Amino acid sequence: MKELLDGIEKKTAGIAVIGLGYVGLPVAALFAECGFDVLGIELRSDRVEKINQGICPIEGEEPGLAELISQVVATRRFRATTSYERVEDRDLILIDVETPVDDRNIPRYEALRSVLDSLGPVLKKGSLVIVESTISPGTMNEMVIPLLERTSGMKADRDFFIGNCPERVMPGKLLKNLKSVSRVVGGNTPETADTMIRLYRHIVQAELDATDCVTAELVKTAENAYRDVQIAFANEVALICEAVGGDVWKVRELVNKSPMRQMHLPGAGVGGHCIPKDPWLLAFGVKDKNVPLYLIPASRAVNDSMPLHIADLLVDALEENGRKTSSSRVLVLGYAYLENSDDIRNSPSIRLVDRLRELGMEVAIHDPYVSDYKGDVAALAVNADAIIVMVAHHDYKKLNLSKISAVMKTPVLIDGRSVFERAEAEQAGFKYGGVGKGLKKKLENKYV
Ligand code: SAJ
Predict the structure, then answer these.
(1) Which residue range(s) make up the domain with 27?
(2) What is the DSSP string of 211-251?
């Protein structure tokens, strides 16, 4: 460990980053920028080629990333390859490969296993391996370490060192979050955790909390499960508000004036590559330990049902307008999973569009950031029976609603993200409804 510490202090230790995606690539670039020699190992040769030309293969607005990659490639501190052969002289190996769950919400560790199979035979004695991918609690002890000992023929904590340091990045702020958000640093031994902290101190200006591997696995999956449960609560309150004619956004604003409340945003659903997956990784950690989980699975069900709820709101509105769903034309505004992003992974809009097409509707899609769906909203709205706002892209706040309702057959506006106020939509000629703001039904005065 002493040699390793020396190499980390003097930045003479060679680094390998395996998996150059939205986490691995910025991490590799930051370590190269601060003076380490970094070798990126990436399966996809098209990404390797782009990177070695100094081009950033990540789409979307990532401030500073493209410039940083071209700089560290030009100074030859960072290069990418598809092969593991040069890993044998690397002292520090970071693993940043995907850990998705399948349609039965079971984690798929194929990418991680294949990395460990390839890494074992070339793993340098005395090196430090850090898994940065999000993994279920127990995965380091039950899978990663045993597998790497088998494929390397070496013993953890004797011949090599190992830990788990999950990331807290967010699309659009990859570099900023990596540098300024605290991290949990899980070492298989306390000494390993300390060594990892010395390494990350070079690129992280925020707190680095030393702990063990299981705690690191639990924190990462629990912090995202926390967010999913909070969002599900807000969505359930929205459904209650619709039923009693309340406005959930007003309710939320006033609830949050109560001390220690932080009701999240209700909406059209929960997408992305973290929040829909990590609660299932957390749950999988206790799969055969008969821990009765109700809240975490139920929250996933609530959030996954929101796109279908939007479809129900639409069907109600069309029927109120005397329109049959099967002959209706609908324009969906927003296909990305997050405002002002081009990332469509697990987007709620995908579920919504499938549902509307199942109901026989003709569906047009617009999204200013997704290349297949760019275009003019008013043109796409011609003769439409309804428009549905699924993503709060900034562009949508500036839409001229009167111009749009004038070209529609029956102007219905279903607002999944409360982008518009009911009054402005109705003034523009729309029948308006949305999550937590059901269609303004005449509430029968049941008390008279
Ligand atoms: N969403 C809601 N209501 C909310 C917040 C989000 O419906 O109150 C929806 C969004 O529309 C989106 C999905 O949930 O479809 C996820 O949104 P997000 O803001 O959580 O964005 P992500 O998926 O990029 O989450 C990442 C996560 N970061 C990591 O996993 C490292 C998450 O832990 C962070 O809390 C989040 O960024 C953040 O905002 O920092």
Answers:
(1) 2-206
(2) EEHHHHHHHHHHHHHHHHHHHHHHHHHHHHHHHHT--HHHH
